[in-house]
Design brief:
With about 260 residues, the chain is of the alpha+beta class. The protein is built from ten helices and six strands; from the N terminus they run αααααββαααβββαβα. Helix 1 packs parallel to helix 6, helix 2 crosses helix 4 and helix 2 packs parallel to helix 5. The chain is globular and about 50 Å long.
Length: about 260
């Protein structure tokens, strides 16, 4: 899989979410989502801001470093950081915000078209290979899209684009520990999950005593912290696998715990 494949799948994931939000009524954009303090509009605003940041990271690394410095001064207070990234978009009506997101996506696609498999992009933390960089953007679209569909009660079709997110969820296992100031576990864990099309995806060494089994969607929901492990049908074998699944975090930023288990379970 090369960077152009990831870029193409990113475009498809963005378009799939566009098809959902473009039919929403203005009042729907104001609904609160599972992300504290964030409305549906804020979810799209977040994607728009970081698409713009991604464009700058690709095209002008020095200017991006300045963006990072400005944002890092806000990180000490989560609400201040949110205001910094979202405030200008919160002044827009849904139509204007949707157009801003679309314009940013087009510019990002154009900037990403210049990337090769060997390129590295500076980001919020260590630099990333071009494929991982665009995979992270795809993961963000899918994960924030999940917050939106959960809010407006719209079902969306699962696709094998989830493989990108599942792989990211697997390779960020050590990051999930490091981000919490913990020593990463070296105990092998195998992940065996079924894709939406029925293909079995395997990550990790075969025959590992610890394992995670289930659907790709459930694995992606847990590693992007959109569902509590115990609200999915994932089968987790072994203490190490269980420990990982309870702290898994496939995205950058401060360590977070994700949603609590449903009160009905």
């Amino acid at each position: 899989m090369d960077v152009n494949t990831v870029r193409s799948d990113l475009l498809e994931e963005q378009e799939a979410l566009d098809n959902i939000v473009s039919i929403l009524e203005p009042v729907d954009w104001l609904q609160p989502t599972p992300s504290p303090r964030w409305s549906v509009a804020d979810q799209i605003a977040h994607l728009t801001y970081f698409d713009k940041a991604a464009i700058t990271a690709i095209t002008d690394p020095d200017a991006f470093q300045n963006l990072v410095s400005d944002l890092m001064t806000m990180i000490t207070a989560a609400e201040d950081a949110e205001d910094y990234t979202l405030s200008s978009y919160r002044e827009m009506n849904p139509h204007a915000l949707l157009e801003a997101w679309r314009n940013g996506r087009r510019e990002l696609a154009e900037a990403a078209s210049s990337l090769s498999d060997k390129d590295r992009i500076i980001w919020y933390g260590p630099s990333m290979g071009s494929k991982s960089f665009l995979t992270a953007r795809l993961m963000e679209v899918w994960a924030h899209g999940q917050d939106i569909v959960d809010t407006v009660h719209i079902e969306r079709q699962d696709t094998d684009r989830l493989r990108h997110i599942a792989q990211l969820g697997f390779i960020t296992r050590s990051w999930s520990y490091i981000n919490r100031g913990l020593e990463p576990s070296v105990v092998p864990v195998q992940v065996i999950i079924q894709s939406p099309s029925g293909i079995t995806w395997n990550f990790g060494p075969e025959g590992a005593a610890d394992s995670v089994r289930g659907t790709a969607k459930d694995f992606c929901l847990v590693t992007t912290q959109r569902r509590n492990l115990f609200d999915t049908d994932l089968l987790v074998e072994g203490d190490t696998a269980l420990e990982w699944m309870t702290i898994a975090q496939a995205f950058a930023g401060p360590a977070t715990d994700g949603p609590s288990a449903s009160a009905n379970d």
